[in-house]
Amino acid sequence: MPPHDSGSALDAAIDRLYAVFGTVPRPAAIDLCPCCMTEPEAAALLAPVPLRELRTEVLEPYVGDVLLTVGSVADFRYFLPRIFAIACTSGFDWPELEPLFRRLRVAGWTDWAAEEQAAIRGLLQAFWRRTLASGDRDADTVLCAIGNAEDDLRPYLDEWAAALRDPAAAAELRDLLQHSTRLKHGTMRLTNAFWGGREAQVVQWLGGAGVRTAVAEAFAAAESEEAMQALAEVDDLLAVYAP
To answer: How far is the C-alpha of 1 from the C-alpha of 133, rounded, in Å?
Structure first.
């Protein structure tokens, strides 16, 4: 999927998120620990401003500690579309993706209404496609973030395998193998601490024959020297982990 198409898909997924969660009422108050969020900060967050117009600096004190020492599932659901729209489109380091996406798990999103689950999963899928197509976000970070929300990463890994003929997707896999994996007692480990024991599917995928086949097929179909070079490096790196 070309970058402009993946960007449009992400915009559509964000719009759907706003629409689906649009019936969640604006909270009247925010439970807070005064050491983590002040009353003036809470008042600014609760000001009668359209959700799409809430500024990043107003959300920051809330997002950092939501569902820890600030807020509840009810108010998290209200602010969710704006928070995740910023997270998936800003290109900045705020909010930190892995802890934010884990808040979905903490909030029990897989027990929410089917339409809400579908909207969230649609956003995760569109964000992942955008990451693979553009290379403007670190795939290791984004995949780990999704893994903090989703139990089954196989659809995302299958998408990566199918996209490997594209230079950005191939380069992201090379970078993950170069910078975010290591051997420990002869076994591959992912180094991103936010995985928290949920990386088994990714390790199995990286060490399996399927990804080697996908790399070979992508190399044969690649249309750019850049993609072929990245895929050749991926093949060499995979051989280290699965000789």
So the answer is: 7
Give the pair of three-digit tokens for residue 241: 């982990």
pLDDT score recorded for residue 185: 79
Same domain, 237 and 213: yes
Same domain, 100 and 206: no
Q: What is the pTM of this model?
A: 0.93
221 in the same domain as 231? yes
Question: Which one, of 208, 210, 178, 190, lies nearest residue 147 by Cα?
Answer: 190
Predicted pLDDT at 191: 95
Q: How far apart are CA 57 and CA 79, in angstroms?
A: 14
Q: What pLDDT sits at residue 92?
A: 67
Residue 139, token pair as written in the block: 């795939």
Residue 183, beta-bridge partner list: 188
Q: Are 163 and 214 in contact (CB under 8 A)?
A: no
Residue 8 backbone phi and psi in degrees, to 5: -65, -40
Residue 5, pLDDT score: 67
CA angle 184, 190, 194 (to 5 degrees): 130
3-state secondary structure of 159: helix
